[in-house]
Amino acid sequence: RLGTLIQSPIYFYIADASYRLFGGVTAFSGRFPSVLFGSLAVLVIYLLSKELFKNDKAALFSAGIYALSGYTLFNNYEYDMAAFFFSLLSIYFLVKGLQGNYRYLYGSAIFLGISVLIKNIVVFFLPAYLLALILHYRGLNQESIEMKRKFVKVILVSALLFIVSILPVLSY
After folding, report:
1. Which residues, other chains included, contact 87 with Cβ-Cβ below 8 Å and sequence gap of 6+?
2. Measured distance CA(127)–CA(7) in Å, rounded
3. What's the rounded Cα separation, in Å, for the pair 166 and 38?
4. How high is the pLDDT of residue 69?
5. How far apart (Å, rounded) are the C-alpha atoms in residues 99 and 109?
6. pTM of the entire structure?
7. Which of 6, 12, 9, 5 is nearest to 30 (CA)?
């Protein structure tokens, strides 16, 4: 099976890799991927906050608040943490991409696709992504037709990457 009603396929493969890495199905091997991705999400929160606020103290504070939040501590064994990590990574790449280096939008699309393959409810982030992209496009200077063309080309390739990455879930 490629998935269940509430779970897309990638997390099953991640959990299987953990089982093989730690010698079988145990409480530790079953929870390790979620703890790992939950911990890595602290780093992504730091990077995202640093990118948004341009302040190291604010980034450290944001990462610390996330690391000590009740949600993170209570749900760090759930498979949602892997989807949360990849969603945050996608948002980070989206922010970097909208600052002018459009190549980051490819990474944003791929990581969003991976997060959908972990937890299919993440697909509901798409309207926010589309709104951010539309607002950015409208904010581009009118004289810069070449910049708008480049942006549209990158968006179309990113959309194709996203669709190809979630094709197993869509076809299932």
Report:
1. 111, 112, 115, 122, 125
2. 21
3. 23
4. 85
5. 16
6. 0.87
7. 12
3-state secondary structure the chain: CCCCCCCCCHHHHHHHHHHHHCCCCCHHHHHHHHHHHHHHHHHHHHHHHHHHHCCHHHHHHHHHHHHHCHHHHHHCCCCHHHHHHHHHHHHHHHHHHHCCCCCHHHHHHHHHHHHHHHCHHHHHHHHHHHHHHHHHHHHCCCCCHHHHHHHHHHHHHHHHHHHHHHHHHHHC
Is the CA virtual torsion 59, 65, 71, 74 positive or negative? positive
pLDDT (tens digit per residue) in 38-73: 889 999 999 999 999 999 999 999 999 988 888 777
Q: Which residue has the higher pLDDT, 18 or 143?
A: 18
pLDDT band at 11 (very low <50, low <70, confident <90, very high): confident
Residue 120 amino acid letter: N
CA 79, chain centre distance (Å): 14
**167 or 77: which leads in pLDDT:** 167
Structure tokens at 13: 């493969």
- Tens digits of per-residue pLDDT, 104-152? 999 999 999 999 888 888 889 999 999 999 888 888 776 578 888 888 9
